[in-house]
């Protein structure tokens, strides 16, 4: 088995992977109320999700987070792949933050109290982009 992770990437991939895995596992047992809340927020920003059943959406979100967490944790998944997946997922979260009313202070990027939980996910964008840029910038 070939390890495709640089040693200095292990701590960030481990911390982020465990966080994403935990988030996905937590959503795996979402009840209908939780699924409806997750779906409502997402479909408000991404209208193509409106026709999806809330429980289906919650299960898909859960599986996506679990897969992303596992990809970050497994050293056989190239950092460029894990970084691209994390950046794409986190970009979706940033879309929620930027487009959902009440998450940002009026006329600002600064979060409201309600927006802090999503605004903090900017670190996921940074980690994903860092992994991606490092691997794309390699000169082996």
Chain-averaged pLDDT: 94
Shape: globular
Q: Biggest β-sheet, characterized?
A: none
Ends distance: 20 Å
Radius of gyration: 16 Å
Strand content: under 5%
Task: Give the uncertain stretches in residue-range form.
Answer: none
Number of helices: 6
H/E order of the elements? HHHHHH
Helical amount: 55-70%
How many beta-strand runs? 0
User: Which structural class is indicated by helix and strand composition?
Assistant: mainly alpha
Describe what this molecule looks like in 3D.
- Helix content is 66%, strand content 0%.
- The protein is built from 6 helices and no strands.
- By secondary structure, the chain is mainly α.
Task: Briefly characterize the structure.
This protein has 140 residues and is an all-alpha fold. The protein has helices at 10-28, 32-45, 54-73, 79-99, 116-119, 122-136. α1 (10-28) packs antiparallel against α3 (54-73), α2 packs across α3 (54-73) and α4 packs antiparallel against α6 (122-136).
């Amino acid at each position: 088995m070939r390890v495709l992770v640089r040693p200095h990437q292990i701590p960030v991939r481990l911390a982020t992977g465990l966080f994403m895995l935990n988030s996905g596992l937590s959503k795996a047992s979402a009840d209908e109320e939780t699924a409806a809340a997750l779906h409502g927020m997402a479909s408000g920003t991404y209208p193509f999700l409106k026709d999806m059943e809330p429980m289906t959406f919650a299960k898909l979100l859960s599986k996506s987070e679990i897969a992303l967490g596992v990809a970050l944790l497994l050293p056989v998944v190239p950092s460029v792949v894990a970084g691209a997946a994390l950046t794409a997922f986190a970009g979706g979260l940033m879309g929620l933050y930027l487009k959902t009313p009440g998450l940002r202070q009026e006329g600002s990027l600064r979060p409201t109290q309600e927006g802090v939980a999503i605004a903090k996910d900017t670190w996921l964008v940074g980690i994903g982009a860092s992994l991606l840029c490092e691997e794309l910038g390699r000169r082996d």
